[in-house]
Design a protein that fits this description.
Blueprint (H helix, E strand, L loop, with lengths): L11 H13 L1 H17 L7 E3 L5 E3 H6 L7 H14 L4 E6 L4 E7 L2 E2 L6 E3 L2 E3 L6 E4 L5 E4 L5 E6 L4 H4 L10 H7 L16 H22 L6 E6 L13 E5 L7 H7 L3 E10 L5 H18 L8 E9 L7 E10 L3 H12 L5
Parallel strand pairs: 3-11, 11-12
Antiparallel strand pairs: 1-2, 3-4, 4-5, 4-8, 6-7, 9-10, 13-15, 14-15
Helix pairs in contact: 4-8, 6-7
Length: 353
């Protein structure tokens, strides 16, 4: 049985909500992972199944079966990790522009910044680890609606872009049509857009950039400009300088940043505990927690000699006894090949995770 204390953070009701959602996902997780394992067996692939978590790290099938809720928002975090690797920008705001939405997150030392408090999941207030993200209704398939002012999104043609967009012979004006008309991409047929009013194209382009700039401003925690990395299939929508960005990078292979992030993911572990730190004992308490975090990472499949403690966050707890602190730590390491082989043997022999 998986308890809320196994993965939840502070907040009793929010933590229990997280446990309920996690339990509700259990059946679907079992079925999904079993299908992956059957597919690997059918293809004679002697490899275990790993999933990415929403902090940008890997977990094996056993952990995924216990904590399916930790895969929430793993797609955007894969894109953020891929953006860091492709652009070599460990501290930046990442804008992942897809077909219907743009997701913005913040990289801190190469990993997604985590939400500091409770988060809403499908309208339910929960308390478990989640990346700090915002979503904007802007993507390659977003509808451009003339008017004063011009609007772009949130309505979108979605997967029907290649059938409905004007550059593909349809009759719907989309953000992709704007990018094609401005010569930013060679997809579709630019000749189909020669009748477009240039003022409408410029106004729609300005609207896209302004909305992205607003999103960047919302993600900042301090004044000043920050690097911005653009990834995703819709990255060609943004080409002008962005207000609030020190510089903007669209790295090579930006359209597959998600796959790059997943392929390069490491194994990690995180602890989030409330401890009493008495005078003179702080170093000893923190060292014990570091040891526990490293041990947890090794148990999750990390190669011991590569594990490092990446983050140590310490917070005082208001209205609690003197010396009470909330301590959050994260450790990361490369996948241990021996762990992968053991997992493969376990599944092949029918022992299960």
């Amino acid at each position: 049985m998986t308890l809320s204390a196994d993965f939840g953070t502070l907040g009793l009701l929010e933590r229990e909500n997280a446990a309920i959602i996690n339990a509700a996902l259990g059946g679907a997780a079992q079925e999904l992972l079993a299908s992956f394992e059957r597919a690997c067996a059918a293809l004679s692939l002697e490899t275990p199944v790993f999933l990415t978590q929403n902090d940008g790290t890997l977990m094996d099938s056993a952990r995924a079966r216990r904590f399916p809720v930790l895969t929430f928002a793993s797609g955007p975090t894969n894109s953020m990790r891929g953006a860091m690797l492709l652009a070599d920008e460990p501290d930046a705001i990442v804008v992942d522009i897809g077909g219907t939405t743009s997701v913005l997150g913040v990289l801190v030392s190469g990993y997604p910044r985590q939400a500091s408090g409770a988060v809403d999941s499908g309208g339910v207030r929960t308390s478990f680890r989640m990346p700090d993200l915002i979503s904007l209704g802007i993507g390659g398939g977003s509808l451009v609606m003339p008017g004063e002012p011009v609007k772009v999104g949130p309505r979108s043609v979605g997967y029907e872009l290649t059938r409905l967009a004007r550059c593909f012979g349809g009759d719907v004006l989309t953000a992709t049509d704007v990018a094609v008309a401005l010569g930013r991409t060679g997809i579709g047929d630019a000749a189909r857009l020669v009748a477009l009013d240039p003022r409408l194209v410029d106004a729609a382009d300005a609207r896209i950039h302004a909305d992205i700039e607003d999103g960047i401003d919302r993600m900042k925690t301090m004044r000043g400009e920050v690097p911005v990395v653009l990834v995703g299939g819709g990255a060609m929508l943004v080409r002008r300088p962005l207000r609030g960005a020190s510089h903007t990078v669209t790295p090579p292979h930006a359209g597959v940043a998600n796959a790059v992030g997943a392929a390069a993911a490491q194994v990690g572990a995180e602890i989030d505990r409330v401890v009493a730190i008495r005078p003179g004992q702080r170093d000893a308490v923190l060292q014990a927690l570091k040891t526990a975090t490293i041990t947890a990472a090794c148990e999750a499949g990390a190669l011991a000699c590569t594990v490092q403690v990446l983050h140590v966050d310490e917070f005082p707890i208001p209205y609690a006894a003197e010396g009470m602190r909330r301590v959050r730590m994260k450790a990361l390491g490369d996948l241990d090949p021996r762990h992968a082989r053991l997992r493969t043997a376990s599944v092949r022999e029918g022992a299960g995770p």
